[in-house]
Amino acid sequence: MNTRDFDHDRDISPNMVCGDGAKFLNFFESYLADTLECLDEPVRDLARQVVLGGGKRLRPLLVYHCGAESPDATDDLLKAAAILEIVHVATLVHDDILDKAKVRRSKATLHTRIGEHSAILLGDALFSFALELATQFTSTRICRLVSKATRRTCSGEIMQTFARGNYDVSLTEYFSFIQNKTGELFKASCQAGAFLAGNSETLIELAGEFGLSLGLNYQIFDDLMDSFGNTTEVGKCLGTDFDTGKITLPLLLLLQKLPSKESAEIKAELSSDARSVDTRRQIMELFDTYDIRDECIAYLAGKLNGTRLIASNIGSKVVSDRLHSFMSSFDGRLSALSTETTPNFLALNQ
């Protein structure tokens, strides 16, 4: 199998990128399912439930788009994509436990079905399996990329955990831990694809910068969804960041805008064990009063422009065009979020 099976035109248009990306994912899903058969029982069945349970497959797509310029690299691209997706799912299993989330991809989270202890062990098994697969490449480069990204992802999660309940976190600190938590796996995906396609070190480095920037933006978007999104449409629990004391961009910007006395009162209420419905409604009203949603969306739009600039500077027109097209999905999502009128978790949660 190679990229000629689903990449017939070197003059890539946005529609064509979406089309061949979808074809790649068809191959990828089959490859991923076959790969999981190498796991031992009972890990195999549990892994199939969480790994094959859906998802946007953003990291596999980034691997592909950064590597599809080389028609003979597809087998390696599929393997790298599977490795990075398995690592990503492992982080989700652990995140759901930490966040006490009950729903993921419109289904009950794994730990609510098999218990936290078993879910933690499954996440560990997935991490180990991904690194085992990474050693199968003749070069150690992929193993290094995946290992570093996994380490930095865990470091970001630890930094964010330590910051829970600390409502004096700065924007710089916030960006630091979300860049690690989400950006590093995006970076590794882009660099793995670019490396396997035989690109120059300069292009590999720029692809990594694109991935890091995109990952940070994606986490910001996730933060906005947690505050302003619709649970039914998103397919997962919203408000878990708020419930667990995580700092998100909307809350961070609000606390910075409030008069010092009012900000201190809100921080004191948020630091208490019981976050009342009245407090939720007050914050929702303050979000509206200070136009926090619109400010966040404008902030993210500016960040996305920076990411597009990185894509434009990549020295391969094929890769650059693919990454620009890949980013186009954000435009529709931001537009939908800006017109969302359904009450969010602040009003709906108990």
Low-confidence segments: 1-18
Number of helices: 17
Shape annotation: globular
Roughly what fraction of the amino acids lie in strands? Answer: under 5%
Instruction: Report the biggest beta sheet as strand number plus sense, adding barrel if it closes.
Output: 2 strands, antiparallel
CATH fold group: Farnesyl Diphosphate Synthase
Q: Keywords, please?
A:
350 residues; mainly alpha; Farnesyl Diphosphate Synthase; two-stranded antiparallel sheet; 17 helices; 2 strands; disordered N terminus
Brief characterization of the structure:
This protein has 350 residues and is mainly alpha-helical. It is built from 17 helices and two strands. The chain has one domain: Orthogonal Bundle (Farnesyl Diphosphate Synthase), CATH 1.10.600.10.
Q: What's the layout of helices and strands?
A:
Layout lengths: L13 H23 L6 H9 L6 H10 L6 H26 L3 E2 L2 E2 L1 H5 L1 H19 L6 H22 L8 H26 L4 H28 L2 H4 L5 H4 L5 H9 L2 H12 L5 H13 L2 H22 L3 H22 L6 H4 L2
Antiparallel strand pairs: 1-2
Helix pairs in contact: 1-3, 1-4, 1-16, 3-4, 3-8, 3-16, 4-6, 4-7, 4-8, 6-7, 7-8, 8-9, 9-15, 12-13, 15-16
